[in-house]
Amino acid sequence: MTTFSEIAPRLEDQAIEVPSWAYGNSGTRFKVFGSPGTPRTVEEKVADAATVHRFTGLAPLVSLHIPWDLVDDFGALRRYAEDLGIGLGTINSNTFQDDDYKLGALTHTDPRIRQKAIDHHFACIDVMHETGSRDLKIWLAEGTNYPGQGDIRGRQDRLAESLRTIYERLGEEQRLVLEYKFFEPAFYHTDVPDWGTSYAHVAALGERALVCLDTGHHAPGTNIEFIVAQLLRLGKLGSFDFNSRFYADDDLIVGAADPYQLFRILFEVIRGGGYGPGSQVAFMLDQCHNIEAKIPGQIRSVLNVQEMTARALLVDAEALRSAQEAGDVLAANEIFMDAFYTDVRADLAAWRESRGLPARPVQAYLGSGYQQQIEADRAGGTQAGWN
Amino acid sequence: MTTFSEIAPRLEDQAIEVPSWAYGNSGTRFKVFGSPGTPRTVEEKVADAATVHRFTGLAPLVSLHIPWDLVDDFGALRRYAEDLGIGLGTINSNTFQDDDYKLGALTHTDPRIRQKAIDHHFACIDVMHETGSRDLKIWLAEGTNYPGQGDIRGRQDRLAESLRTIYERLGEEQRLVLEYKFFEPAFYHTDVPDWGTSYAHVAALGERALVCLDTGHHAPGTNIEFIVAQLLRLGKLGSFDFNSRFYADDDLIVGAADPYQLFRILFEVIRGGGYGPGSQVAFMLDQCHNIEAKIPGQIRSVLNVQEMTARALLVDAEALRSAQEAGDVLAANEIFMDAFYTDVRADLAAWRESRGLPARPVQAYLGSGYQQQIEADRAGGTQAGWN
Amino acid sequence: MTTFSEIAPRLEDQAIEVPSWAYGNSGTRFKVFGSPGTPRTVEEKVADAATVHRFTGLAPLVSLHIPWDLVDDFGALRRYAEDLGIGLGTINSNTFQDDDYKLGALTHTDPRIRQKAIDHHFACIDVMHETGSRDLKIWLAEGTNYPGQGDIRGRQDRLAESLRTIYERLGEEQRLVLEYKFFEPAFYHTDVPDWGTSYAHVAALGERALVCLDTGHHAPGTNIEFIVAQLLRLGKLGSFDFNSRFYADDDLIVGAADPYQLFRILFEVIRGGGYGPGSQVAFMLDQCHNIEAKIPGQIRSVLNVQEMTARALLVDAEALRSAQEAGDVLAANEIFMDAFYTDVRADLAAWRESRGLPARPVQAYLGSGYQQQIEADRAGGTQAGWN
Amino acid sequence: MTTFSEIAPRLEDQAIEVPSWAYGNSGTRFKVFGSPGTPRTVEEKVADAATVHRFTGLAPLVSLHIPWDLVDDFGALRRYAEDLGIGLGTINSNTFQDDDYKLGALTHTDPRIRQKAIDHHFACIDVMHETGSRDLKIWLAEGTNYPGQGDIRGRQDRLAESLRTIYERLGEEQRLVLEYKFFEPAFYHTDVPDWGTSYAHVAALGERALVCLDTGHHAPGTNIEFIVAQLLRLGKLGSFDFNSRFYADDDLIVGAADPYQLFRILFEVIRGGGYGPGSQVAFMLDQCHNIEAKIPGQIRSVLNVQEMTARALLVDAEALRSAQEAGDVLAANEIFMDAFYTDVRADLAAWRESRGLPARPVQAYLGSGYQQQIEADRAGGTQAGWN
């Protein structure tokens, strides 16, 4: 069996982007609950993200969402973040909150609205030049609610054309990552519902177009680690949106619903070359802390990713391959589960301490006074949310 | 084969409650789109509901939601509705939008919060006395998002006690109907997730406690008509919330996603004595017209229920029973589908005309000028929504 | 609205392949029930298939499964079929019933077993040369039951290599169609679980490699018509395996579970150029008549496809496009559903009679004496099944 | 945090029934693979079951299936088992493999067939008197494949009557446990598809009628631990059929697909009084070892149950309740997951050794020579399977 000390050096490679919107309020269509200390400004969101990194060493980047995180001077925001020890990461576009987009944006039948949505992406690319971001992430909330409402095929053709126009605007070092989602907010058909659709589009665009895999965006029962393995094989896995779910796109804390699934996903990431130097895969969170505390929720999330990465690294690859080749089903499975069942928490605590990080980041955060401070400071104003 | 003229008299028995909130704005957690002419007041919602009845003859009642539809004088509202030709129907309680209910209401560990939720239901019962409503419908948005967050078992016990207290407050002619829902807004466990749970509770309460079946509130693949048959057999089907879905609780127009399923449901309703004189089953809609026009959406919905009721009535029950008893699988299925495939629309149009109703209600509505009128009249103010 | 007489000429284009194995016994892992008259030989299966065509005019080809349908002289079988008025269609390979394939065939770690599976496909290609079949259909029953059991990524790489070897053996006029399936018989991962995987493989192989879409092989809630539209757009839809399902791969009669879904699928087929002259799409059935009569079951199936094709052809494409472009959600949906709700059965009966076919093929079959004849003739021997 | 030594005494309470059929061959509708050493007789199955107990101390009973395990002298079989250190447990009836039951057994329209199925259960009760079994387990494979095929409601009524007749035949100390299943082998409707239906029937029967919960028999996404909590609350959880699944009723090794779910289930069992002295809940396995070795598969299964029971016992109930009552979502979840993440394997190994059991039962079995012996001894004859 592989030991923790053997895998410890590889833990240095872990870097997870946290989303700015996780620090704002979120909820369901029924209710958005607020909480004390919630940021009112982009800067406050960045400060919270930097806090997660300070306590974990795992979250050196914060993703932004446009227009939610629009500021006048992104250069200043970048310097502000860097002063706090983090960078600005992926830029997320938004084409689902303008009245014009009620029936579509990049797929709309009206060329004026398509162009408006394309222009929004051009503006995002401009932001990327200022923030130094590599990735433009496109999640399309588009689709239809009723059969016949739209022309499924025609929408694909228009989508391809819109994506082509956006892709061609990218700088040499920039990438387009196209997210897919099974359903919601559209309830009959979604224009990019599955990895196959996202793959077909990015394959047509070119090398710097890749797929974004959100772990909550699949049909019930989907084997997500298979998709990870396949996309890595095809050279097209660009990024992850980590979260977890029991039902639909629940956006719960990653690893909270099925830690063994997270382990299996990370095993395939490592197996397929998606982890460590040379990997092109961005690891992001995309969660909604509807009822739980937000900053500790994010800390818990990045720790969960780290814990399962450590367990996945512990799999004895050679023994596993031998058992697989011998056709020993039970032995292969046991080797695999041995790594999952190994409790790495104490080793990770020691590893953190050796790097000047708190052994128990959640508890350290709770004892730090940061939460009390922001609750006191952030009185008044409008708490940030999805707008 | 049964003919339309044979079943026509039974169509008189059809009466569908429409929900006041269907006329207000609704949407997803991502965006609520408004639309011109949306009501600003309860009275305007009632007026729209009455319009649906005027064009269809199918919707003689409007359900209210408390506190969304709170008015100072429910007696006056009742008279207003009656003047427009409809009545006030089921009263829906709401224990999911107050900050106190973030982690539970009727199930909360804190007795103060439980009492607050119970008191809200007492207030609803007071409203019912004024509106003349028979049914108090309880949809519990309660549950937890994370394993361990709550004590599943303890929550059931508290729920039972809270429901008992509410039930005992009901008047002699009033009923409690308990809705169940698979998930959302809670994403790990829901306190009343399935018909079995609702049934266990209402069976413990007494005769005037019944189950409400929302057609969108089931796990993927669930055979809903089986549940209908079972609840009718157990004497515990109190009401329907009709809508349709492809994925989760999509709240689409009833019959839009799977008309054959609607047919099968209505067949079991009729088979089990849930339709017509003597039935205790209330037929309600519960839909969200997120992107389509609201009043025509409601008209389409009640017409869909009527069309599928007519088809279900057309099933040749005697021939079907013979084929079933003969074990002739294909013949039985063909007799069943024959009724479904029969196009009753022309017959229904004639039937409507014979009653002074428009042959084509949607088109009649669109040509009536009502929509243009409300768009002109309802300028200013705040459009109604889920608050 | 489009009329039946306008679309009638296009009904001539319909041709559906029926599977030889539908006439043999099938069942679940719990029990395979036999029935009187079940074929004992390939010739008897072909005779039953020809009977379906004789009564419907819709099923001019029968698909064969190797080795279930192995005969010494396929040229003779071909002549036998042609004498009965049908041809031999797609050849289906089988790499799931040999003990060697317990843990994989085209993906196996052992090169000897991979070569054995490849050789089986070479043998199928030899058969195709004799039968004049165009398509080699590969359904891979491969996968694993337990995490860790196999190397998901390595299996893909071996699969790609095996498929390449088979593809290169095809004749100029022959095609390889690769079926995908969500799960079963493997219960953790399947090597070709979704259309994306099948597409990625056939895109890598070349022009004569295409995807086979079995309508029962998807995750719950999957929008199948979207996949149809996408594959047609990508030029990669090779064939259909039609059947229907409520839960998993139930293999019920096509159109029996959700006729509206079948309508939507056929609409996208037509919309995307997959129907009629010039289309490369093969329409096949793949069903299990576990409890119902087999020949009438197949007759019912091809009729269901025809009925829904007629309805789909009836959609008023121009009116639909106008409503879609106007953003009129309800009108577009109504135009779409109007066609679905139109009862074409009487028109189709007349159309059939005008071609010398029975107006009511199921009833004609039942009255023909064929069933009684085969029940009398096919005494003794071993009824055909999945072996 | 609770320590292992605190919970160790409670591990003595664990007793799991293993199914005789797990030692025979099983598979899918596509193929049943055999394996060397598979039992040919009931005695050989019992011997294998006893071997599982000998290596684990966890499996003191073997469940029998009638007629698969019919013997002339059940008294002798009982003595044979007792000599090997185990007892005979639950008796499982079978009404799905006789041609008469093709369209139903306890629900059939034909009274002769219903009586035949009832008589079979009477015969099972006779067996129970000889074997000393407490429980008659009824899994009904009944249902329909096509809408209209059967009268859903009438079938329920006949089912209730049949169950009543069987229940009344039970001895004073005997129980009836009614299993439910979402689908398969029926693919449209199943007569006992969910816990609610099973509950409604057993509640009507009386005190000694209880529900059997098979962990693989639910719709996708179903929260099984909720059902456990609910049935314990209602006093109606009679037994478990443990196994695991990714998709449908996959019948994989319990804990293999989602160990965290198994932990949550066992937590609710303990929470609700279903574990330990005084509990009426029988813990059984019901698995199919289609491709893996059978005896080690069963050993792995009972160990998985034990490991997750230990982890569930480790939950710090007091701290959990405090966090729940404080509304601290993250703290409560962390307390819960702490127990799950605790690696109890070394402690359990020591605990086993202290009882004279092998520290590592799977490895001990593999080194024991038992497998080689049965492979040598069990040459010839017909391997046991599902018939």
SSE topology sketch:
Four copies of one chain form a homotetramer.
Chain A: H1 4-11, E1 16-19, H2 42-56, E2 61-65, H3 74-83, E3 87-92, H4 111-131, E4 135-139, E5 143-144, H5 152-169, E6 175-179, E7 189-190, H6 195-205, E8 209-214, H7 224-233, E9 237-242, H8 259-271, E10 282-285, H9 294-314, H10 317-325, H11 329-341, H12 345-354, H13 361-368, H14 370-377
Parallel strand pairs in A: 1-2, 1-10, 2-3, 3-4, 4-6, 6-8, 8-9, 9-10
Antiparallel strand pairs in A: 5-7
Protein name (chains A, B, C, D): L-rhamnose isomerase
Keywords (chains A, B, C, D): Cytoplasm, Isomerase, Manganese, Metal-binding, Rhamnose metabolism
GO molecular function (chains A, B, C, D): isomerase activity
For the largest interface, the chains and their residue counts are: A-C, 59 and 60 residues
Order of helices and strands of chain A: HEHEHEHEEHEEHEHEHEHHHHHH
- Characterize the overall form of chain A: globular
Estimate the helix proportion of chain A, in percent: 40-55%
Q: In CATH terms, what is the fold-level topology of chain A?
A: TIM Barrel
- Reported CATH architecture of chain A: Alpha-Beta Barrel
The total domain count of chain A is: 1
**Could you tell me how far the N terminus lies from the C terminus of chain A, measured between alpha carbons in angstroms?**
50 Å
Write down the CATH class of chain A. Answer: Alpha Beta
Radius of gyration over C-alpha positions of chain A, nearest whole angstrom: 21 Å
Q: What spatial order of strands do you see in the largest sheet of chain A?
A: 1-2-3-4-6-8-9-10
What oligomeric state do these chains adopt?
A: homotetramer
The CATH fourth-level homologous superfamily of chain A: Divalent-metal-dependent TIM barrel enzymes
Mean pLDDT rating of chain A = 97
Supply the helix-strand structural class of chain A.
alpha/beta
What about the largest sheet of chain A?
8 strands, parallel, barrel
Number of helices of chain A: 14
pLDDT < 50 runs, ≥5 residues of chain A: none
